[in-house]
Amino acid sequence: MSKTYIEEQTFEKKDFTLQPLARADYEDCSFINCNFSGSELSNINFSGCTFNGCNLGTASVHNTTFSDVKFTGCKMLGLHFENCNTLLFSVYFEDCVANLCSFYQRNLKKTVFKNCSLQEVDFTEANLTGATFANCDLNKALFENSILEKADFRTAYNYTIDPQFNKIKKARFSATGLAGLLRKYDIEVD
What we know:
single chain; mainly beta; seven-stranded parallel beta sheet; 1 helix; 11 strands; 2% helix
C-alpha cells in the first residue's frame, strides 16, 4: 500500500485531535495554528514543512520523519524526538515552549534553538556539535555524555552542564553563564 503524497498545502486552524492528520508524506506544507495535542503522528514524513503557532504537546512521533522542519511559536510539551526516524532528521526551533521534550541520543548538529523554553529537556548522549541556544531557558535540562563541541550557550540561561561528563571543547559561554559549569561544586560566583 503506497502512502499519499501532499505537497505545498497550507493547513490553518485545524483540530487534528478531532479528525486525525492523514498518514502521508508532507513536503513543503505549512501548518498554522493547528492542534495536534496528543495526536498520532507516527510514521508520517514531514519534509521542508513549517509549523507556526501549533500545539504538538504529547503527540506520538514514533518513526516520524522531520527533515528540514521549522517550528515557530509552537507548544511541544513532552515530545519524544528520540523516537523519530533518524534518517535526515533536521529541525529548527524559534519561540517554542518545548519543556519536558526528549532528544536522547539524537543527532542535533548545528540545530538552532532561538528564544525557546527548554526546561527539563533531556539532551542525554545527544550530538549538539555547533548547535545554538540563543536566549533559551535551559532550567533543569539534562546534559549527560552529550557532545557540545562548538555549541553556543552565550545567551542561554539557567543551564547546568558538568564539563566532566560532556564534551565541551570550543563551546561558547558568556562570563555570566560560567556558574552553570561550576554548579556541582556548590561554589558562589560573583
